[in-house]
Amino acid sequence: MTDPLTPGLAAGRLSPEEIEGNFADLHAPLGPRDAAVAADRCYFCYDAPCIAACPTEIDIPLFIRQIAGGRPEEAAKTIFDQNILGGMCARVCPTEDLCEGSCVRETSEGKPVEIGLLQRYATDSLMRRQGHPYNRADETGKTVAVVGAGPAGMACAHRLAMRGHRVTLYDAATKPGGLNEFGIAAYKSTGDFAQTEADWIMQIGGISFEGGKALGRELSLEELAESFDAVFVGVGLAGVNALAAEGAEKDGVTDAVRYIAELRQSTDLASLPVGRNIVVIGGGMTAIDAAVQTKLLGAENVTIAYRRGRDRMGASVYEQDLAASKGVRIICNVQPVEIHGNGAAAEIELEYTADTGDGLRGTGERLRLPADQIFKAIGQTMTLDSGLELEGGRISVDAKYRTSMEKVWAGGDCVAPGDDLTVWGAAQGRDAAEDMHAALMGVPEASTRAVIAEAARGIDAPPHGHAPHPDMPG
Amino acid sequence: MADLTTDFVGIRSPNPFWLASAPPTDKEYNVRRAFEAGWGGVVWKTLGAEGPPVVNVNGPRYGAIYGPDRRLMGLNNIELITDRPLETNLEEMARVKADYPDRALIASIMVPCEEAAWKAILPRVAETGADGIELNFGCPHGMAERGMGSAVGQVPEYIEMVTRWCKTYYDRPVIVKLTPNITDIRMPARAALNGGADAVSLINTINSITSVDLDRMAPEPTIDGKGTHGGYCGPAVRPIAMNMVAEIARDPETRDLPISGIGGITTWRDAAEFIALGCGNVQVCTAAMTYGFRVVEEMTAGLSAWMDEKGYASVAEVSGRAVPNVTDWQYLNLNYVTKARIDQDLCIKCGRCYAACEDTSHQAIAMEPGRTFEVIDAECVACNLCVDVCPVEDCITMTRLEPGETDPRTGRVVPAEPGNWTQHPNNPAATAAE
Fold first, then answer.
1. Which helix or strand (DSSP H or E) is residue B136 part of?
2. In whole angstroms, what is the distance from residue A340 CA to residue A247 CA?
3. Which ipTM was obtained for this model?
4. In the predicted model, is pLDDT for residue B341 greater than 60?
């Protein structure tokens, strides 16, 4: 084991046992008894706000009632019917902003029903069982190319396969999963869950995976559109924004997403080099994930430096608190000016900022922090040049996820403007698949909306209180 | 501090909390510990006739119904009376009573319905120094098949007959324990009174099957693949017990008959409610079996504090206070008109009131944008279902319309004077116009 105070990048700052403990499940899964107690707290609200808050509109009160009734596998079916990635979403969704954030018990007592953990309890129990719960419809004879095997692509491929189409699922990486496999913090997806889930989704049949194939490299959209009946583009954001600071080229300055991917693919975390003094530039989930995980690897000081106020941070309050609880310091209203060091980064110089209303200005006041590893987590961009019409740097789609090119649909992080969550990818991939199916077969599109009680009164509206997501097309 | 001392048919105890005749009172060891924990009295586990004692099953004796978080709401048992020799029980009772002279010690008895059997056991019990006896006419399982327990309690003539024998051969108070497994509780109570009983105690357990094992297709508790009905008790039976207590307390024939209340009493409040309905004291079993003897501390402390708050000096002052307000439906004031009111500040927007009213009641709650729920006075019949299903206490309340106001539902002005069914024009037997 390395001395934890070793300067610069070094592996093994903590013992393998400590690291293993640090990267265990962030929230221990519920056992049957905890699940029964947690499920009992659900009020079974009328047209519940949690359903409206879920991008995939899972019937949450129903699945919780099924858990309470001692049928977790049926509960899982309720979940998977709406969201085939329900297992991963149970682990990674920012539930504090979605279902749990809208739970009436959150409003009334600050303690929502533990929807995320209950969803994991249900989905785990079904996925543990051998076999896949869905059958394919009869072969339609139609073929679809799905490009990008992340959440959107997998959700789309599964739904298309279920409808009887034959899907070829491409990905630039050699294994499926996308950000679930390469981007999610390790302690949120333990036990190689992303691969387990991808394999389980493929069990439906009718999907063939082809790794190592990227759009603009081995694949072209025109050729795909030529050889398949339809194409779904569900690629991620490969580009990382550049750091506007002097010395940004020094050793030790890294893309957070790249480091996280490396960490996720590492088979021995104790062998992964990590700095002693770390500064993460950014304020989103990626910044939090990089900061927390390097802290858990044994970095002595980890600081998140964000250029605006805390209320503007992309990371949820829950994630900010998580970082703080692991010993990460968050400094707001600072921007990087220069990275000092002889070849390798040693210090970072930051300048305080003020939001003047017409832009962010440096105040002139500066501070220096020791920094032998600096992470850029200031957003990703789409690098794909596909010829598709763009909007805000991402693929422009209509309400049915159709792009500017005939036969081509798109969803997930690459469409404009996105919310960059697994659950949004799952919703968009699913809905695009239904529209593709309808278009391919000349049948009406099947609704993927939640069944609401109000419909029984002839009111065909989303549940009251449902604010259509501002970023959701349509 | 309120005085919790009670004098129940001449039997004094430091508080009104007795342990009911049941497993917790089956032997000296338990009863001594119960007294040390603070119980005011015990009714010893039911004694049988001299001779070889009864035997119990060797599989499970209990079945349960649970509420949230596995809270035990109802307990069912198929245990019989004491399975220890009569002599052992009598010796232990005598020793315990001698050591705890200030506590009530009552002998529960169940012997065959023959005068000789009662005549034989009563002097033996009297020798122990027990303060009184309780006749077990209640147990609905096992012993009832042998013509005892509820088999006696279901026939008023037998109750009267056996009670009379006991009053003949025993000179201390006789309490008759009633079974709820009957159609009208007033009949057995009147029979007990006619037989000379000093008091009745109720309820004994209710015949029940708590659950069915769907794999073995057998009722629980299951003994080698079969089950039988057992006696149900615990918090779930309390409403049934309270009604039966109140029926006896307000029956002109039995209104002065002292009552020892039994049935799911778990907290001081439960006890206070039984006492308000006419009980002179209460007996507890399931709460002790669930949580142990120390639950009595909450009961005594809570009852005493509440009595202080209300200015009641003694349990006797509380006893029966609610009885005059228990009446027949026909005497309820039909001119008392209320409407549900939802406190929007307390509302958490779960919509349960709406689902209940819209789907199963009177469509008297409107769901407005933003999940705001409003009562529609023109539809609200004041049924109270919304109040009952609302998870937030006091969020929905029933507010009375003042006399002179118009009820938007009926279009009628609320009269100042009360009016009930006996006077209502729709009642063919009405005694007076409204």
1. strand B132-136
2. 7
3. 0.86
4. yes
CB A435 within 8 A of CB A400: yes
Per the structure, how many domains does chain A have? 3
3-state class percentages of chain A: helix first, strand second, coil last, to nearest 5? 35, 20, 45
- Pairs from A160-163 (Cβ < 8 Å, separation ≥ 24): A160/A206, A160/A232, A160/A433, A160/A436, A160/A437, A161/A136, A161/A204, A161/A205, A161/A206, A161/A207, A162/A134, A162/A135, A162/A136, A162/A137, A162/A204, A163/A137, A163/A433, A163/A437, A163/A441
What DSSP character marks residue B177?
Answer: E
Residues A373 and A386 in one domain: no
Respond yes or no: is residue B139 known to be catalytic.
yes
Domain B329-423 annotated CATH 3.30.70.20: yes
> By the 8 A CB rule, do B242 and B263 touch?
yes
B154 near B182, Cβ under 8 Å?
Answer: yes
Sign of torsion, CA A292 A296 A297 A298? positive
- The predicted pLDDT at position A330 comes to 97
Residue B411 touches chain A, beta carbons under 8 Å: no
B338/chain A closest Cα distance in angstroms: 25
CATH 3.20.20.70 fits B6-325, yes or no: yes
Q: Do B351 and A465 touch (CB under 8 A)?
A: no
**pLDDT tens digits along A73-132:** 999 999 999 999 999 999 999 999 999 999 999 988 999 999 999 999 999 999 998 889
Tokens representing A179? 């950000």
CA B421/CA B426 separation, integer angstroms: 8
In chain B, which among 319-358 make CB contacts under 8 A with chain A?
A: 348-352, 354-355, 358
CA dist B295 → B38, B70, B292 (Å): 9, 18, 6
In a mutagenesis test of the A interface, which of B69, B71, B214, B349 is the best target, namely the one with the most A β-carbons within 10 Å? B349
Give the side-chain half-sphere CA count within 13 A for B71.
Answer: 11
The domain locations on chain B are 6-325, 329-423
Contact (Cβ atoms closer than 8 angstroms) between residue B182 and residue B188: yes
| Kind and range of the H or E run holding B248 | helix B238-250
Q: Which of B370, B400, B420 is nearest to B431 (CA)?
A: B420
pLDDT at residue B327 greater than cutoff 70: yes
| Chain centre distance of CA A302 | 23
Residue A387 has φ and ψ, to the nearest 5°, of 85, -5
User: Which residues, in sequence order, are CB contacts of A311 under 8 Å at separation 6+?
Assistant: none
When pLDDT is averaged across residues A302-330 and rounded to a whole number, the result is: 95
Q: Identify the burial level of B357 via C-beta atoms within 10 angstroms of its C-beta, where 0-12 means exposed, 13-18 middle and 19 or more buried.
A: buried
Task: Tell me the three state secondary structure of residue A263.
Answer: helix
- The pLDDT value recorded for residue A130 is 81
* CB of A225 closer than 8 Å to CB of A408: yes
* Sheet containing A207-211: order of strands: A207-211, A166-171, A143-147, A230-233, A408-410
CB of A388 within 8 A of CB of A403?
yes
Are residues A148 and A200 both part of a single domain? Answer: yes
User: What's the CA gap between A123 and A200, in Å, rounded?
Assistant: 12
Q: Do domains B6-325 and B329-423 have the same CATH topology?
A: no
Identify all chain B residues contacting A104, using CB atoms and an 8 Å cutoff.
348-350
**How many helices and strands in chain A, by DSSP H and E?**
17, 17
Q: What is the tens place of the pLDDT at every residue in B230-252?
A: 999 999 999 999 999 999 999 99
Interface of A with B (CB under 8 A): 33, 36-37, 40, 43-49, 104-105, 107-108, 453-454, 457, 464-465
- Domain residue limits at A229: 143-238+382-443
Q: Residue type at B269?
A: R
Are A271 and A249 found together in one domain? Answer: yes
